[in-house]
Each structure stands twice: as structure tokens, then as C-alpha cells.
Amino acid sequence: MISRPMTRRLCKNICVMTLGFTMVLLSACKKPAEPQAAPVAPAAGKPPVTAAKAEKPALPPLFRDIERRTFQFFWDTSNELNGLTPDRYPSRPFASIASVGFALTAYPIGIENGWVSRTQAVERTLLTLQFFRDLPQGPQREGNAGYKGFYYHFLDMQTGLRYGTWVELSSVDTSLLMMGVLFAQSYYDRDDPREKEIREIAEQLYRRVDWNWMAKRKPLVSMGWHPEQGFIEADWKGYNEAMFLYVLGLGSPTHPLSDDAWTVWTRTYDESWGVYEGQEYLATGPAFWNQYSAAWIDFRGIQDEYMRNRGIDYFENNRRAAYAQRAYAIENPMKWKDYGENVWGLTASDGPQNTTQEYRGEQRKFRGYSERGAGLHSNFDDGTIAPTAAIASLPFAPEIVIPATEEMHERYGEYLYSSYGFLDAFNRSFEYDIPLKRGRIVPGEGWVSTDYIGIDQGPILAMIANYRNGFVWNVMKKNAHIRKGLLRAGFTGGWLAAKEPEARPTPDEAADPKEAEARAIGTAESRANSATVPEAVDPAPDTKPE
User: Which UniProt keywords apply (predicted)?
Assistant: First the structure.
């Protein structure tokens, strides 16, 4: 367990010393200033506004431990024979292509910190890319891993094939995979033959993704496709986590989305823009909507047309979202246990169970894996806190994230913090004696997840690296495809206005219970599968329709 910062304890002791030191000690012993709320938006059309410059808070040693443990999640749990990363661990039901994208990003972070050698990471990365390149693709229901360059959301950990007929060909999860693929392409820049092959295969994988095919209702991109039913009726429309999907689609050299794709994507932003908990921003609920794209793309100082008109950038938007989540926890309108200034964070995460129970004299609905959030939209809250929601907001608002991370570790670390860092989520209010599909009840403490989830681990690691020195952002700035996608989306200013960094030329393209449980997990975790379900319903025994 990490103790409270020593300075506060010393402060209390020193303040009882002689009056000769009073003036000095009073300044040292004052209560730390309350973090200032993010500023409201200026008039439209002005340069982006950001929070007032302040000295960058130093990270306490706890964060180095979190980094190392979270990195080890990806290094230890990925299949050494094919590079596939489990969706979750230790239950490990299947591989998630999105988790692979975060794993490919994690390996260079491990190199930079000395946790693995460059040789080790090159071997793992090359193995992974070769495996994905060689996996069969086709329209058939079985025997394939993907189609038209896209991959199925969940793959068998050993064979790499579609895990089941319920698994969709996922546009957003393929995009998370491709962000990791392009990150690897830009990081491994040496003349070593293996690094050259990494760059070449990364280019091949990216070039064969047919974004136009997935844009069934052009220019918007469908959430996915099933060989059994065809395209999912729901499209990706803003504002949510899919910004990076459109950046990738616009940057494609082979199957690019049309010029109006970004304009149409942002056309629905006004439905989310408003004032929530004292902040004016794109006030959608789940934290990961603000974190996924920002894990790879540095939005500081760059703006698209929508943000130019609003007078801020996406980085500032995300900062306000973090402050709003914290303010919501302090207000705690539903009176959940322990919510407060340093216990906050709602996002997509594990939860205790799909059930309705009495809480404080009224019926409350709880969920298993589900989106949770605080905002004008997608604001379900059942008392479940996910540490990744706060920690992955570190670059946006370190002054509130650092104390939150320390407090959650200190108060709950005995059962929430383990081999690979923070377990996925906890709920201090859920103490009901009912059967659970996942997680456990800690007597007197409530429910806690027993799994780590790859897509929640990944943002933690990337965002701590970005806070330290902008590592992931700076690597991704070198990628010509990402830069092109941002420019086609209408982003200007900031680092995009600087001379394009030199980059290597991109080459030319050369039904048992276990199955039922796995299906339940995967269905719950797939936004595409739930795209037409407006809210949770009481589940059947083997499904979780959040």
C-alpha cells in the first residue's frame, strides 16, 4: 500500500514548532488549493483556449508501479505463438483485436522504460503482424478472421478465427487494431530487416481495409457487419470514441472515405454540446469516448471546424469532461457509497450483475459489463467506479487525477490492486447476496471485478506515457497516414502547422456452458451488437444485452 504523501504528515508536525518559524510554516502548512475548474468556452472563432498554465505536477512513485504492472498485462497475457491479446484476464475467453492494438502500443513503451529489450519487442510485434497478415479473410460464416481488411471483434486465442457466429466484423475495433499497427510502423524505424518488415506489413494491413465498403450509408461508417445478416443498421455518428475511425478512413491511400465524412460525423455534435456540472463541452457520459482517440493523437492546439467555432480544442474538451465527472461524484445525486472528490470515474467497464435491487429504500438497476457515464447523454450510473476512467484522464487534468489515483489505491488497494495494476472496477454499494457471473463480494467492501480488461488497461499505459513526455503522441505525429487523415478532416494549427517530419516512404502493397458464458461477455462488450438496444433489459440466462 502506498501511504499518503509524506509532506502532509511532516507539515502537521512542523506546525507545532516555535513561533520563530511561524510565518514560514504557515505557508507550508496551508491546505493545498482546490483544483480550479476548467474555463468556459470563449466566443466562437477565437484561437483554442486551454487551462491556465501551471507547474506540471510530478507523478508519485505509485504511477511508475502502475505503468510497469499494466505493461506486464500485455506482455504476459498475449499469446507468444501468435501475438493475440485476451479481451480479459484471467478469465481469458477469447482474443480482442482492440486489445491487440493497445498491446502493439504497449511494447515500445516497454522498450523505452527498459522493461523489455528492443529485440524482444520487435520479435513479438513482427510475429503479431505476420499472423494478422496471414489470417484467412472472406465472406463465409466460418473459417475466417475477417473480410475486406476488417477483422472480427473477437478471435479464438489459438487459431485466430472468428470466435462465434454472434461476433461481428467490427469497424471500430479494427480501427483500434490499426492505430496500434500504425504506431508500430512509425516507432520501428531502423534499417534492421525485421523492423523494415514490420513497416511493410503494417502498410499492407492498413491499405487493405476497405472503408468505403463499410460505409454502407455513405459517408458514415457502419458499426459492423455479419455474414449472416449483413451490415449493422447503426452508423458511427459523433460524438463518441470513433473519431480515430474517421481519421483512419480519411487517411487511407487505397479506400478513403469521401471528403464530407468528417463534416457529416460532426453534424450531430450539437446534440451533445451543452453545460453539465458547470462545464461547457461535448457532454457525453462515458470517459473512454474522450480517451481512445486522445491516447494516440495529440489534440493540443489543433482544431477542426467544429472546435474552431466553439473556441476550444478536443484536449480542452476532454479536460472539462474529467472535471465534470469529478463534480458529478462530489454532488453524488444517487447517494452511492464513497463517491467524492477523489473517488470518481464512469466509463465502459465490468459491473456486478444485471439485476434490480433495493438501495436506500428504492429500486435500483445494476448492470454487468456496460457503458456508464456522467453527462447529458449515455449517463447510466449504478455505483460502479472504474479506475481507468480517472487514470487515463491524467494528461487532461493531472491535478485531480493524481490524488484520485492515490486515494483509490490507498483505500481499496488491498483487494483492487494486484499483479497487473488496478482490477477493472468496483462498487462499494453492491453488497447483495445473489449469484454473480463475474467478480466477487468483499465482505464489508462491496463488489469488485476479478478481471483486467485489455481496452481499459491500454489507455492507462498510453496516457501515463503521454503525460510523462508525450511519447505515444510524438511517435504518431510521424505517421503520414494519421497526418493526412487529420488534414482531410479539416484540422489545422498546432503541430500540424509545423513542417511535416521526415518519414520513410510507405511501400506499395505487396453451445456448451463455457461457450454461452463467452458469448454473454462478448455480446455485452460489443457496442455494435447493442446498437439498436436503447437500454438494458432483464437478460436471459446466457445473454447480457447492455
Answer: Signal
Q: Which residues make beta-bridge pairs with 365?
A: 356
Name every residue whose Cβ is closer than 8 Å to that of residue 213 and which is 6 or more positions away in sequence: 148, 255
What residues contact 62, with CB distance under 8 A and at least 6 apart?
2, 405, 406, 409
pLDDT single digits (tens) 177-233: 999 999 999 999 999 999 999 999 999 999 999 999 999 999 999 999 999 999 999
Grid cell for residue 436: 454473480
The three grid cell numbers given for residue 69, joined into one nine-digit string: 504492472
Q: State the helix-helix crossing angle for 193-207 and 118-134, rounded to 10 degrees.
A: 40
Q: What gap in Å lies between CA 224 and CA 232, rounded to an integer?
A: 5
Question: Backbone phi, then psi, for 325, in 5-degree steps?
Answer: -60, -45
Task: Name the pTM for this structure.
Answer: 0.87
Q: From CA 139, how far away is CA 146, in angstroms rounded?
A: 8
Distance CA(380)–CA(473), nearest Å, equals 31
Which among 325, 304, 321 is positioned nearest to 313, based on CA atoms?
304
Helix, strand, coil tally for the chain in percent (to 5):
40, 10, 45
Per-residue CA distances from 168 to 152, 217, 426, 532 (Å): 6, 18, 29, 14
Taking the C-alpha atoms of residue 84 and residue 96, their distance in angstroms, rounded to an integer, is 8
How far is it, in rounded angstroms, from Cα 51 to Cα 322? 13
In residues, how long is the chain? 546
Cα diameter, the chain: 83
Task: Give, as one character, the DSSP assignment of residue 152.
Answer: B
Chain position carrying cell 455513405: 218
